[in-house]
Design brief:
Bound molecules: iron/sulfur cluster
InterPro entries: DNA_glycosylase (IPR011257), HhH-GPD_domain (IPR003265), HhH_base_excis_C (IPR023170)
Pfam family, one: HhH-GPD
CATH class of the largest domain: Mainly Alpha
Number of domains: 2
Structural class: mainly alpha
GO molecular function, one term: class I DNA-(apurinic or apyrimidinic site) endonuclease activity
Keywords: Endonuclease, Hydrolase, Lyase, Nuclease
Order of helices and strands: HHHHHHHHHHHH
Radius of gyration: 19 Å
EC number: 4.2.99.18
CATH superfamily of the largest domain: Hypothetical protein, domain 2
């Protein structure tokens, strides 16, 4: 079921969908899609990596992940290790004192759901529907829609679930693909509903990456470069900033 706001007509929803596809085409061309997947992790490793990456620079969360893997033999060992040892291994990321117990809580819950056996690698999520897999993940402690989508899309499962990070969210708001008060969590449903249901993982990945790159390279949080933006014609925020001459 599509997430049409109560006040939105079917025509307005169709126009948002059409705009999303025009923006997709323009930004994919601008940034050189198709984009190469950056990860080949199994889904459990991708989940751990995503939890480490919360509000952390990529380079720092990568270092934390690498050290965690180098320190412990497998995820079961991480689960059962002294929390201080896990915290030390991930010290390169932000808030290791919060993330270490979080990782272990998630690993314990995964084990509980697997009848207390070894954690496995969550590959069984590939046999579920995407809503089922996302619900399974989002009922783990501290796992929200961005992490569940990242686990399904970025891991070697390659399922077409779309994460929305802060860049993607900001660009979508400014373009009017979602309202100005829609938060990141709600944006996951509203933005996914704009995509054709038959899109594969590469297309969903390209959409996410293209909007994210645009936020990183042009639509900056402060002082977006609207005058050189390839989607200015689609963007009420940019047009208002630049004034009537544009
Ligand atoms: S016109 Fe400006 S605000 Fe709009 S998407 Fe482009 S850079 Fe962002």
């Amino acid at each position: 079921m599509k997430a049409v706001a109560p006040s939105e007509t079917a025509e307005a929803f169709a126009e948002r969908q059409a705009k999303a596809l025009r923006v997709h085409a323009q930004l994919c061309a601008e940034y050189g899609a198709p984009f190469r997947f950056f990860s080949t992790k199994d889904p459990l490793s991708e989940l751990m990596s995503a939890l480490l990456s919360h509000r952390t620079k990529n380079a720092d969360s990568h270092r934390a992940y690498q050290e965690l893997r180098a320190t412990f033999a497998d995820w079961d060992t991480v689960r059962d290790a002294p929390t201080e040892a896990v915290q030390h291994a991930i010290r390169a990321c932000t808030w290791p004192e919060q993330k270490a117990p979080r990782l272990q809580a998630v690993l314990r819950e995964v084990s509980n759901r697997c009848d207390g056996g070894p954690c496995g690698d969550l590959r069984f999520l590939g046999a579920m529907t995407i809503p089922e897999a996302r619900t399974w993940l989002e009922t783990l402690p501290g796992v929200g829609p961005k992490t569940s989508a990242a686990t399904l899309l970025f891991s070697d499962l390659r399922r077409p679930a779309m994460p929305v990070d802060s860049h993607h969210h900001r660009v979508a708001q400014r373009l009017g693909l979602i309202g100005p008060k829609v938060d990141e969590k709600a944006a996951h449903v509203l933005l996914a509903d704009l995509l054709p249901p038959g899109w594969d993982a590469q297309q969903v990945y390209d959409h996410h990456e293209a909007l994210m790159f645009h936020g990183q390279k042009c639509c900056f949080y402060q002082a977006p470069a609207c005058a050189r933006c390839v989607v200015l014609a689609e963007c009420p925020f940019g047009q208002a900033r630049l004034g009537p001459a544009n």
